[in-house]
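Sanity check

After download, print the first record. It should look like this:
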Amino acid sequence: MTETSAVASGPQGQESPAGQGRSTAGGLGLPAAVAGVYTLVQLALVVRGSGLGWDETVYVSQVARDAEAAFFSAPRARGITYLVAPVTLLTSSVGALRVYLALLSGAGLLVALRVWRRLLPVPVLAVAGALFAGLWITVIYGPQAMPNLWAALGSLFAAGCFLRAARDPSDRAALAGLGGGMAFVALMRPSDALWLALPLGVAALVVPAWRRTALLLVLVAGTALGCGQWVVEAYTDFGGLLARLRRASEIQGHLGWHLAFDDQVRALDGRLLCRPCDVPWRRPVTAVWWFVLPLLTAGGALAAARLRRLPVVLLPALAALATAVPYLLLIGYAAPRFLLPTYALLSLPVAQCLTWICSAVRPRLLVVSVLAVALAGHLAVQYAVLAAVAARNRESRAAFGRVAAELARQGVRPPCVVSGTEAVRIAFRAGCASRQTGGHDRSITPAALVATARERPVAVVVAGKDAPPSYARSWRLQRLPDLPGRPGLRAYLAPSAQLGPGSRLSG
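Expected structure tokens:
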């Protein structure tokens, strides 16, 4: 029997030496502690004073009780909107939403690790969880209403369920978990689910012991179920599936051959979106871990081969590579959050490598000390980036609050409409609807906006040296407080926007 088939055939970790089954199936105190610390770090460093980003505002506005829904463009999926709905339908508090997501993401991390306990020792799972949760990207997006972290946790969960179901045909819970996990990922980000399903499907066909019809059917059915809403919406709102795919590709810069490795590296110093990513690489230290990652992954595979659990570590590594393909090779810009599924899956082979080094390489004390110092330095860098990103978020929230308050003083009060620069976030803070007459989020014609201005207060916001659209040039000009990266902010206010008590004109 080959090593692969031996590993594939054991239902309860029988590929391991005597006693390994007890180790892998034991308690999850360490991973639970990691998940708890992850949640506490979010609450302490990210939640306080944070505001909604642009993408978050789009997702949240779909189910917010006190706001009109922002335009929902072709690439977006509604999974994260469904996830936040239980809170946003009850309260407009951003703080409550943040706490809810922080608690939920900690629980999600624990659930995603728990499914692996029959496959890998608990210490490996604890280290994997700590490595993934220790990234500034993972912490910053834990309490955010964004789909990428949830796609990552769902991918980790689904890959574990796949391996358990493949190794043990009687594990019906794992088979159901595979279908649910794939549907969850697809509901969050359909493209991520398709790239994840590819290596899992190939593995189910290539490995003889895993070649079962039920496994493939559940994999395909779960993915299709999760993509169903996106496909139906393509026909109801975008003119068909191909039309939506074309529009999504256009909005993302026309998908094609784009090498984005250098863009992703530059973005690691705290840029949430690097588009275009032609900025200088000022802090290379923030990307050291990124270059070490492939080496530790390869080391994890070698260690797993020695421990006779290579397929258990190799499959998530291959799945990680597949999920990285579109963001490293097909999109011409970068956002660190895009690779969260890749990092979640790679945390397992990396953790296997580190735990094996600590136990097998001599002198052990020296090896452990060197690794501890390296990890401490890594975490210090992650914390520095996290602190800077969180501070910018708080500054941004305060700035948007000032803009919304000034618009209210100038008569832009609900029911109202905001168009132009940063319309989505300004409108949400002001209690208005956001409408754009051009660009990717075009949702109204200039004539229709002018007609709306006869009935509702309308503000067209421009920044810097940008000129107002022709239909708004005769409207009242009002200077606004600057936004980060948007100096010279001003609004052109329709006659329907009446000055509030104590307000004054400024031009």
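If your output differs, re-run the checksum step. Summary of this record's structure: Residues 1-25 have pLDDT under 50 and may be disordered.
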